[in-house]
């Protein structure tokens, strides 16, 4: 709740003492609940959250958009130029948590796929070795059949004479 004398940074109207309003933790500007674009549920969560020195842990859209991303010539392309302000540190922490939350299922799937690939490679290697053995046995057998056929045809020619 705002004290007397604050104006909404969005609509510039006076914020009454008993009206639903909140202050940005970064820029310290006050906003009416309706001007903050927060749902009733989110507003209630923020209002119920533990506060430091009467402040909320909410940031206005202007402060949230202060993070600047710089393209990099590095191989990984992951350099992000952010100041070390608490707002940016909180933002980066929140982004990391979101990445971990939403990437975890994909990491599990990738791990499973990698395991399957290793298993398939192992089976393929075994099959390749067995194929080499079978090919060599086939050649030896072909040679024996050829020798047997030649021996048989020699006997047939000798008995005919």
Automatic annotation (TrEMBL):
The keyword Metal-binding applies. InterPro entries: Zinc_finger_PHD-type_CS (IPR019786), Znf_FYVE_PHD (IPR011011), Znf_PHD (IPR001965), Znf_PHD-finger (IPR019787), Znf_RING/FYVE/PHD (IPR013083). Keywords: Metal-binding, Zinc, Zinc-finger. GO terms for molecular function: zinc ion binding. Residues 5-66 form the PHD-type domain. This is PHD-type domain-containing protein. The lineage of its organism: Eukaryota, Metazoa, Ecdysozoa, Arthropoda, Hexapoda.
């Amino acid at each position: 709740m705002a004290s007397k004398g604050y104006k909404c940074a969005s609509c510039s109207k006076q914020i009454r003492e008993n009206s639903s309003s909140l202050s940005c933790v970064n820029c310290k500007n006050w906003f009416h609940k309706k001007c903050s674009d927060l749902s009733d549920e989110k507003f209630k969560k923020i209002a119920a959250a533990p506060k430091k020195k009467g402040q909320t842990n909410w940031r206005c859209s202007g402060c949230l958009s202060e993070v600047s991303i710089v393209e990099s010539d590095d191989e990984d392309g992951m350099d992000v130029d952010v100041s070390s302000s608490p707002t940016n540190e909180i933002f980066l922490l929140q982004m990391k948590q979101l990445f971990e939350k939403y990437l975890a299922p994909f990491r599990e799937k990738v791990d499973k796929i990698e395991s399957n690939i290793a298993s398939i490679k192992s089976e393929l290697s075994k099959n390749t070795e067995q194929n080499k053995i079978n090919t060599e046995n086939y050649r030896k057998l072909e040679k024996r059949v050829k020798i047997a056929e030649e021996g048989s045809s020699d006997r047939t020619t000798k008995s005919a004479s």
